[in-house]
C-alpha cells in the first residue's frame, strides 16, 4: 500500500542551482526560496556552506541564509561538509544541516579527497557539534544505484554506509541515484538491503532523471513504503557526468504524480509552476518539467 | 558536489556500467528472467514501435519518403517485433502519411516482424491490402467529443465503420489491432470514466480485434488513473490481449507503464526518440521514447529482444534527418558520455 502522505524535500536552490552553469545573483536565489516557501513545501534546502573555491555558485551562502524569509513550519536545511562549514552555517542562522556521504570509495576520493571512512570521521565532528546545539542532521548517500567512477555499486555497501550514518545520529537518510542510472529493478534491490538496516520511516529517495527513470524509480520506492522524496523545481540542475543530460527530477512532475495517486503533499502545484517559471526566466532557460511544458499553452 | 573533470566522460567504469544497463550486442539478455518472475512482472514484453506512424504524424516537418523507408528499415534490424509503418488515411487529413503506398511497397520486410498500418475505413483497408499490408489497425476512442472532432462521427458510428473493416480483414486472415484513445482523459471532455473505456474496448475485442491498445492520448494519466482504468478493462478483456500506449506529455509515461506491467500487461507501444509532439498542448512532448522504455525493461530483467544500441542509432538517424533533438533521455545521456561514437 502506498503512503497516504509524502514529504517533498525541495533541493532546487542548492542541488539544482549548484549544477547550473550561470552563477545566479543572490537576490534571485532569495526570491526563489521565498516563492518556494509560499507553495506549501515543508522543506527547502537553501544553500551549501562549502568553500566558494569549490562551489562558486554557493559563495553567497551567508547572505542567502540571512536574506530569506523563514516561514514557521518550514525547514531550511543547508549542506555542511565539515565542522568549519557547520559553524559558519549556525552563525548564519541555520537550524538544520545535511552531510553528504557516498556508497563509492572512488566517488568519495574524487569528490572530497578522502576515503568513505575518513569522510565519516569528518561527519562525526559535525554530528557531535550538532547534537550539542540541538540541530537535526540529514544524511545523504550518493551513488546508491551506480557510480560514474566505480560503475556498479553493491546494495550491501549502500546499506552499510546508510546504517553508519543513521547510527551516527542522522534523523533521515536520503538515498541518491547520483547519475540517474537506476531502474525500478535496481531501486527495489537497493531498498530491500537498506531497509534491513534503517527503518523505512527514516528513508528518502533522491532520484536523478538523466535516463528518464526517476518517476518510475520513485513509484517503486513509494510502493516499498518510502514517504520522503527529494526533487528540484523545474528540474533544475544538469548532470556533471553527462554533458547536456538532465539531472534532478522536477518537483512539478513529482507532485503531479503524487496528486494523481491521491497522496497528500500539501503542495500547491500551480504556485510551484509559477515559481518554476520565475527561476527559468531568471536563468534564461527552458524548464525541465514536462508538466510545466504541457501547461504552457494556458 | 565539486566540479568534475571532463575526462570523466570517457571513464571506463561508467561506460561499463552503461553497457550493462544497455545490454549491448547480447543476442540473448544476460538475465534469465528469474528476476522479473520473482517480482510478478512479465518475463517478456512485446514492444510495438509507432514512431514511423504516430511519431512522424505529429511532427511538423513533412518527411521525405526515402527517409521514412530508411527509418523503418533501420528499426527492422533492432529486434523490434512490430513496427507501425503508415496510415491509409486521406492525404487531405494527414499530409504526412500521403506517401503510404510508396512506403508500404518500399520497405524491406524482415521475417518475424509485423508491419501494421492504420485503416480508418473500408476504403483505406482495401488500399492497404493492395499495397501489401498484412496487418491493420483501427482507431476508436472512449470519448464522444474526441470521436466527433477527430473522425467526425459518434463512437457508435465509428464502431460500425470498424466492423466493416474487421469483417473484410477476417475473410482475408488479416489480423486487426484496435486502439482506444483518451483512455485516461480527453482534451475536450476532461475526465473519462474507466467503465466507458472498458465498454469500447470490449466492443472492439468482441468484433474481432486481436489486441486492444489503450492510449493515454494527452498523457494526463498517472499510476492512480492507469490502475483504475486497467482494473475496469481487465474485467472485460483478457490481459494477454491488452497493450498500453502512453504519452509522456506530463512526464508520467514510464511510471504509468510500470504500473501496467505490474498488473500483467505485456505489450507496450512507444516511439523511437520520442517522436511526435502533442497536438493538444503546443510545445509539449507526446509519445514515450522507445529507448527509455527499453532501458527500464532491461533494468527489470524483462526480455524484449531489442538491441538498445541499434535502436539509439535509428533514433539518431531520424533526429538528424528531422534536424531536431531527441526526446529520449537515454539517448541524450548516452550520446554525451562518449559511449556512442
TrEMBL record, chain A:
<dbReference type="InterPro" id="IPR013785">
    <property type="entry name" value="Aldolase_TIM"/>
</dbReference>
<keyword id="KW-0479">Metal-binding</keyword>
<comment type="pathway">
    <text>Metabolic intermediate metabolism; (S)-3-hydroxy-3-methylglutaryl-CoA degradation; acetoacetate from (S)-3-hydroxy-3-methylglutaryl-CoA: step 1/1.</text>
</comment>
<dbReference type="InterPro" id="IPR043594">
    <property type="entry name" value="HMGL"/>
</dbReference>
<dbReference type="InterPro" id="IPR000891">
    <property type="entry name" value="PYR_CT"/>
</dbReference>
<feature type="domain" description="Pyruvate carboxyltransferase">
    <location>
        <begin position="6"/>
        <end position="273"/>
    </location>
</feature>
<dbReference type="GO" id="GO:0005739">
    <property type="term" value="C:mitochondrion"/>
</dbReference>
<dbReference type="GO" id="GO:0006552">
    <property type="term" value="P:L-leucine catabolic process"/>
</dbReference>
<comment type="similarity">
    <text>Belongs to the HMG-CoA lyase family.</text>
</comment>
<dbReference type="Pfam" id="PF00682">
    <property type="entry name" value="HMGL-like"/>
</dbReference>
<dbReference type="GO" id="GO:0004419">
    <property type="term" value="F:hydroxymethylglutaryl-CoA lyase activity"/>
</dbReference>
<dbReference type="GO" id="GO:0046872">
    <property type="term" value="F:metal ion binding"/>
</dbReference>
<dbReference type="GO" id="GO:0046951">
    <property type="term" value="P:ketone body biosynthetic process"/>
</dbReference>
<keyword id="KW-0456">Lyase</keyword>
<protein>
    <recommendedName>
        <fullName>hydroxymethylglutaryl-CoA lyase</fullName>
        <ecNumber>4.1.3.4</ecNumber>
    </recommendedName>
</protein>
TrEMBL record, chain B:
<dbReference type="GO" id="GO:0006552">
    <property type="term" value="P:L-leucine catabolic process"/>
</dbReference>
<keyword id="KW-0479">Metal-binding</keyword>
<dbReference type="InterPro" id="IPR000138">
    <property type="entry name" value="HMG_CoA_lyase_AS"/>
</dbReference>
<dbReference type="Pfam" id="PF00682">
    <property type="entry name" value="HMGL-like"/>
</dbReference>
<dbReference type="InterPro" id="IPR000891">
    <property type="entry name" value="PYR_CT"/>
</dbReference>
<keyword id="KW-0456">Lyase</keyword>
<feature type="domain" description="Pyruvate carboxyltransferase">
    <location>
        <begin position="45"/>
        <end position="312"/>
    </location>
</feature>
<comment type="similarity">
    <text>Belongs to the HMG-CoA lyase family.</text>
</comment>
<comment type="pathway">
    <text>Metabolic intermediate metabolism; (S)-3-hydroxy-3-methylglutaryl-CoA degradation; acetoacetate from (S)-3-hydroxy-3-methylglutaryl-CoA: step 1/1.</text>
</comment>
<dbReference type="InterPro" id="IPR013785">
    <property type="entry name" value="Aldolase_TIM"/>
</dbReference>
<dbReference type="InterPro" id="IPR043594">
    <property type="entry name" value="HMGL"/>
</dbReference>
<dbReference type="GO" id="GO:0004419">
    <property type="term" value="F:hydroxymethylglutaryl-CoA lyase activity"/>
</dbReference>
<dbReference type="GO" id="GO:0046872">
    <property type="term" value="F:metal ion binding"/>
</dbReference>
<protein>
    <recommendedName>
        <fullName>hydroxymethylglutaryl-CoA lyase</fullName>
        <ecNumber>4.1.3.4</ecNumber>
    </recommendedName>
</protein>
<dbReference type="GO" id="GO:0005829">
    <property type="term" value="C:cytosol"/>
</dbReference>
<dbReference type="GO" id="GO:0005783">
    <property type="term" value="C:endoplasmic reticulum"/>
</dbReference>
<dbReference type="GO" id="GO:0046951">
    <property type="term" value="P:ketone body biosynthetic process"/>
</dbReference>
Amino acid at each position: 500500500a502506498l503512503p497516504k502522505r509524502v514529504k517533498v524535500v525541495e533541493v532546487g536552490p542548492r542541488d539544482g542551482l549548484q549544477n547550473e552553469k550561470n552563477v545566479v545573483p543572490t537576490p534571485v536565489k532569495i526570491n526563489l526560496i521565498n516563492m518556494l516557501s509560499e507553495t506549501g513545501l515543508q522543506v527547502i534546502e537553501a544553500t551549501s556552506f562549502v568553500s566558494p573555491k569549490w562551489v562558486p555558485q554557493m559563495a553567497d551562502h551567508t547572505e542567502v541564509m540571512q536574506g530569506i524569509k523563514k516561514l514557521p513550519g518550514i525547514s531550511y536545511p543547508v549542506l555542511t561538509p565539515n565542522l568549519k562549514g557547520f559553524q559558519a552555517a549556525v552563525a548564519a542562522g541555520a537550524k538544520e544541516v545535511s552531510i553528504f556521504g557516498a556508497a563509492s570509495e572512488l566517488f568519495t576520493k574524487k569528490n572530497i579527497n578522502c576515503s568513505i571512512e575518513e569522510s565519516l570521521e569528518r561527519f562525526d565532528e559535525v554530528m557531535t557539534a550538532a547534537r550539542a546545539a540541538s540541530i537535526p542532521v540529514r544524511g545523504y548517500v550518493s551513488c546508491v544505484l551506480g557510480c560514474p567512477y566505480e560503475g556498479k555499486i553493491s546494495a550491501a555497501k549502500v546499506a552499510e554506509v546508510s546504517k553508519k550514518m543513521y547510527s551516527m545520529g542522522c534523523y533521515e537518510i536520503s538515498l541518491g541515484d547520483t547519475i540517474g542510472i537506476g531502474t525500478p529493478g535496481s531501486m527495489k534491490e537497493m531498498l530491500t538491503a537498506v531497509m534491513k538496516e534503517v527503518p523505512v520511516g527514516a528513508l528518502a529517495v533522491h532520484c536523478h532523471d538523466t535516463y528518464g527513470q526517476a518517476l518510475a524509480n520513485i513509484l517503486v520506492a513509494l510502493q516499498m513504503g518510502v514517504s520522503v522524496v527529494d526533487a528540484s523545481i523545474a528540474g533544475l540542475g544538469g548532470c556533471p557526468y553527462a554533458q547536456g543530460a538532465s539531472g534532478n527530477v522536477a518537483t512539478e512532475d513529482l507532485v503531479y504524480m503524487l496528486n494523481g495517486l491521491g497522496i497528500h503533499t500539501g503542495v500547491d502545484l500551480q504556485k510551484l509552476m509559477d515559481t518554476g517559471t520565475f527561476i527559468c526566466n531568471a536563468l534564461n532557460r527552458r524548464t525541465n518539467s514536462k508538466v510545466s511544458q504541457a501547461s504552457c499553452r494556458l | 558536489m565539486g566540479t568534475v573533470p571532463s575526462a570523466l566522460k570517457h571513464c571506463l567504469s561508467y561506460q561499463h556500467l552503461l553497457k550493462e544497463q544497455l545490454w549491448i550486442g547480447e543476442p540473448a539478455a544476460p538475465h534469465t528472467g528469474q528476476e522479473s518472475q520473482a517480482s510478478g512482472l512479465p518475463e517478456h514484453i512485446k514492444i510495438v514501435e509507432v514512431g514511423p506512424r504516430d511519431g512522424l504524424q505529429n511532427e511538423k516537418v513533412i518527411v521525405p519518403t526515402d527517409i521514412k523507408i530508411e527509418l523503418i528499415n533501420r528499426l527492422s534490424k533492432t529486434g523490434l517485433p512490430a513496427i507501425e509503418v503508415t496510415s491509409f488515411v486521406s492525404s487531405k487529413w494527414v499530409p504526412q502519411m500521403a506517401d503510404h503506398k510508396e512506403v508500404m511497397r518500399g520497405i524491406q520486410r524482415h521475417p518475424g516482424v509485423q508491419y501494421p498500418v492504420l485503416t480508418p475505413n473500408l476504403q483505406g483497408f482495401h488500399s492497404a491490402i493492395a499495397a501489401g499490408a498484412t496487418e491493420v489497425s483501427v482507431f476508436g476512442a472512449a470519448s464522444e467529443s474526441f470521436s466527433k472532432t477527430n473522425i467526425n462521427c459518434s463512437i457508435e458510428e465509428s464502431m460500425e465503420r470498424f466492423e466493416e473493416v474487421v469483417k473484410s480483414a477476417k475473410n482475408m486472415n488479416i489480423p486487426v489491432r484496435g486502439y482506444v484513445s483518451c483512455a485516461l482523459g480527453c482534451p475536450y471532455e476532461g475526465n473519462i470514466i474507466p467503465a466507458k473505456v472498458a465498454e469500447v474496448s470490449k466492443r472492439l475485442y468482441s468484433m474481432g480485434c486481436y489486441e486492444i491498445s489503450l492510449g493515454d492520448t494527452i498523457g494526463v494519466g498517472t499510476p492512480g488513473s492507469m490502475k483504475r482504468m486497467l482494473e475496469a478493462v481487465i474485467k472485460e478483456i483478457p490481459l494477454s490481449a491488452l497493450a498500453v500506449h502512453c504519452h509522456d506529455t506530463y512526464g508520467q509515461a514510464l511510471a504509468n507503464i510500470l504500473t501496467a506491467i505490474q498488473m500483467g500487461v505485456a505489450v507496450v507501444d512507444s516511439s523511437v526518440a520520442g517522436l511526435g509532439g502533442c497536438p493538444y498542448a503546443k510545445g509539449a512532448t507526446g509519445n514515450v521514447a522507445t529507448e527509455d522504455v527499453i532501458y527500464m525493461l532491461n533494468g527489470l530483467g524483462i526480455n524484449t529482444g531489442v538491441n538498445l544500441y541499434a535502436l539509439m542509432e535509428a533514433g539518431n538517424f531520424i533526429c538528424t534527418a528531422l534536424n531536431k533533438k531527441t526526446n529520449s533521455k537515454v539517448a541524450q545521456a548516452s550520446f554525451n558520455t562518449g559511449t556512442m561514437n
